[in-house]
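Module 6 notes. Inverse folding takes a fixed backbone as the condition and produces residue identities as the prediction. Think of it as a translation problem where the source language is geometry and the target language is the twenty amino acids. Below is one complete input and output pair. Work through it position by position during the lab.
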């Protein structure tokens, strides 16, 4: 190879298209995590009155429709990879901004609910220490590590996903062995996790479904790899849909076995870490410790990564002028991190974890996620109408179904979560209006 051929200018450098369909699918599963339904199992169980597997399956239907819309949008806007871009470019910049603002709430709430869950899981190891001590510890731990620039690498994430996959296999084996040693059961024993007429409540199931959406958060991240994927027009949409479907199937198996193991009507020692106690019932103290430790480490990794991700999102909004630039747009000269934002989010998480429940934090997070999903579905319909009208009637109908199902689930979020989420959205609208007016103000200093 000649020196001339080997020399490539910076403007010609592009990302290498090396990711196959299976690479993309694995990445999606790593993002979502194999144990996704375990932390929220107890909350869904309580709200849906025992119908966790049905709530997971109902949420999967809405997410599958939405995953098709994400796949279609990724083909048209390969560099975007986010609901913010899709909605802003296909519908209107103002709607795109509102979508991004609601996603910011998700970013901030994610480390908050991780702190709540980690604190409850730590109490399973050290029950004598008050909950508030663990909240302070994890909030400070996440903040201090991120102030020093510690990040979770892709290799660590992949290793963690593999370890969690092993934990899932251990749980399934222990659950099957436990069920095989039970005395003979009636047919209804195996169908009640799907539908139990004695406890079924339509409103409870829909409320549980609105929480179960959390188990699928992350499938849209595959779209960010469009520039590195082989045959992205074909493989990106397929990987998004299949990752969502695989998550639903795996999550359904996990929660179905969990419901069979735990006696119907019996309360959990701790609702937030219910699945840990189910694992202990199936596999004894050793499996209890393994699952509790694995989920604790997974939530710590997720909490630290999302803490820094939220800080960077606020940095981008500050540098863009959507938030006060002097505070939110500042970067520490030594560590090159948005120190103000890291500390602010740490403080928010500390206070929030002391007053929020895991359920409320989850529902508020899903408030923003479902709004973003609805926006992507509408953008997909608009794309089909703009490019070919009724030629694309099938994908347009799928996207419309995705919007309606997400809207239906969104309306069944808890009232407090809807009020708080709407207040957050209104603050975003006010900031957008103020920013637009400042941009268009005439310069009177000349």
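Target side of the pair, the amino acids:
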């Amino acid at each position: 190879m000649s020196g001339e051929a080997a020399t490539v200018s910076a403007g010609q450098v592009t990302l290498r298209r090396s990711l196959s369909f299976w690479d993309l699918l694995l990445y999606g599963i790593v993002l979502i995590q194999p144990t996704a339904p375990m932390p929220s199992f107890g909350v869904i169980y309580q709200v849906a009155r025992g119908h966790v597997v049905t709530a997971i399956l109902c949420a999967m239907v809405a997410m599958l429709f939405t995953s098709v819309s994400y796949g279609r949008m990724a083909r048209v806007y390969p560099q975007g990879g986010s609901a913010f871009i899709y909605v802003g470019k296909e519908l209107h910049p103002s709607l795109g901004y509102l979508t991004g603002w609601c996603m910011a709430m998700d970013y901030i709430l994610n480390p908050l609910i991780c702190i709540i869950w980690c604190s409850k899981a730590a109490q399973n190891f050290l029950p004598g220490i008050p909950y508030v001590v663990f909240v302070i510890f994890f909030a400070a731990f996440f903040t201090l590590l991120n102030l020093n620039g510690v990040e979770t690498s892709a290799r660590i994430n992949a290793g963690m996903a593999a370890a969690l996959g092993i934990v899932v296999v251990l749980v399934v084996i222990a659950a099957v062995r436990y069920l095989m040693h039970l005395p003979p059961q009636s047919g209804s024993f195996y169908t009640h996790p799907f539908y139990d007429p004695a406890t079924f409540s339509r409103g409870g199931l829909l409320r549980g479904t609105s929480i179960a959406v959390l188990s699928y958060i992350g499938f849209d991240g595959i779209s960010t790899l469009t520039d590195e994927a082989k045959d992205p027009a074909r493989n990106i949409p397929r990987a998004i849909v299949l990752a969502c479907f695989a998550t639903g199937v795996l999550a359904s198996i996990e929660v179905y076995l969990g419901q069979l193991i735990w006696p119907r009507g019996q309360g959990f020692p701790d609702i937030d870490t219910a699945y840990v106690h189910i694992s202990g019932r199936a596999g004894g103290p050793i499996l209890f410790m393994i699952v509790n430790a694995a989920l604790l480490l997974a939530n710590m990794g997720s909490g630290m990564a999302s803490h820094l991700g939220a800080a960077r999102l606020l940095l981008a909004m500050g540098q863009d002028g959507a938030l006060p630039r002097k505070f939110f747009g500042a970067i520490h000269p030594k560590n090159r991190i948005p120190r103000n934002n890291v500390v602010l989010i740490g403080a928010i998480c500390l206070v929030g974890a002391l007053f929020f429940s895991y359920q409320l934090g989850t529902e508020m997070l899903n408030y923003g996620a479902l709004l973003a999903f609805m926006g992507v579905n509408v953008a997909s319909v608009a794309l089909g109408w703009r490019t070919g009208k009724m030629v694309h009637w099938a994908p347009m109908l799928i996207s419309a179904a995705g919007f309606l199902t997400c809207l239906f689930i969104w309306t069944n979020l808890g009232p407090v979560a809807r009020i708080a989420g709407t207040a957050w959205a209104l603050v975003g609208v006010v900031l957008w209006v103020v920013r637009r007016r400042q941009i268009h103000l005439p310069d009177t200093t000349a």
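Reference fact for the lab report: The chain has a mean pLDDT of 85.
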